[in-house]
Amino acid sequence: MTANEVDERALRAAVADTERALAEFDGARQWLAAARQRPMEPFGAEVWVFDQALARVLLVKHRLRGWVPPGGKVEAGETPRDGASRELLEETGLEPELLPDPAAVAVRSYHPDHPVTLGLSYAAVVDAATPFVAEDGQPVAWTPLAEGWESCFPGDLLRIRQHAAWLAGRTGRH
Questions:
Q1: Which of 44, 86, 128, 172 is the most buried (most CB within 10 A)?
Q2: Are the beta carbons of 41 and 73 closer than 8 angstroms?
């Protein structure tokens, strides 16, 4: 296995999380079933961090992608959930418990020169007063869900809003 291939443990975890994801986009389940037949790029994983009122999401300013949820490439030996937690810690200093079921699964390219891969989105809810520490060169900010933001993934705003509304319905927060 090379550094650019997914290991079996990560693949098994990605398959399980893909099946449990609350939302699917881009035909991700079908894409993963076909992609398993050949070497594939490492997965992407991110965390949709909401404040307790489910009115804001925590975003980082990426130099190429604009404002995006904290996340990145799943490293060798990690599951997508582990990678999401690690990236969240690296980019924000936060270590919340991720909600049990993944929020979403999608297929996308994280760089114009890279092929598409599977991306898993996890969610967490934290007290907005919890201090965070931005990674050098990547500002972090709470962003109201009622507003938009500049991102190379314009569909994310609606996806994240829909998940916040779903969480609000389950928890009684409005």
A1: 44
A2: no
